[in-house]
Design brief:
This protein is α+β, with helices and mostly antiparallel strands and 181 residues long. It has helices at residues 56-67, 108-124, 162-180, and strands spanning 8-13, 21-28, 31-39, 74-78, 87-92, 98-99, 127-128, 135-137, 143-145, 149-150. The longest helix has 19 residues, at 162-180.
Length: 181
């Protein structure tokens, strides 16, 4: 992404009380690009010697939200240094993002429309960790989901089948379409 541009890189702590995220500033040609970087939710605890299997569904949903305009631009950063394989998720900083715990003024209508859409997606895509710092609205009052985890209904740490997940989402969309006819 910034290969050959000789970027300056700075890190700072987040102020959202998360245990696994940092803010990364990449400065190229006097332009600052800001990202929030975290581990995938299924990476395991930071003190563990071993990691859990990568949850491809979480990665798929991040890119899905990006592609439909309800999430930030996402980059996946592989750890090429350590012997333990882990993947980091970088989300482009949204300057005009306003979380629902923010003190800024918004109208009830703006918030209610965004909450309904976010709630629908959370249920539809099995999103968890949906506290008010992880979602909100942008400058146009469009809903934005910054961070989430995929609910694990079976409570195990095994990699789930991405094709099965996509098929279930497709069937849910078909059911919604047919119920409107």
């Amino acid at each position: 992404m910034f290969k050959g541009l000789n970027p300056a890189i700075e890190f700072e702590e987040t102020n959202d009380r998360t245990r696994s995220a940092v803010i990364c500033k990449v400065i190229v040609n006097s332009i600052t690009h800001k990202y929030r970087i975290k581990t995938n939710h299924n990476a395991g605890e930071s003190g563990q010697a071993s990691r859990w299997n990568l949850d491809l569904i979480e990665l798929y949903v991040y890119k899905l939200l990006e592609s439909i305009g309800l999430g930030p631009k996402i980059v996946f950063i592989p750890n090429c240094v350590a012997s333990t394989s882990i993947l980091y998720i970088g989300s482009e900083w949204l300057a005009h993002f306003q979380s629902f715990n923010s003190t800024e003024q918004v109208t009830t209508t703006e918030v209610s429309h965004a909450v309904v859409q976010i709630h629908f997606l959370a249920v539809f895509l099995s999103l968890g960790d949906m506290h008010e710092e992880n979602f909100g609205i942008n400058a146009s009052s469009d809903p934005i989901i910054l961070d989430f985890m995929i609910n694990k209904l079976d409570f195990d740490k095994k990699t789930r089948d991405l094709e099965e997940f996509v098929e279930n989402v497709r069937l849910n969309i078909q059911d919604l379409y047919h119920s409107k006819l």
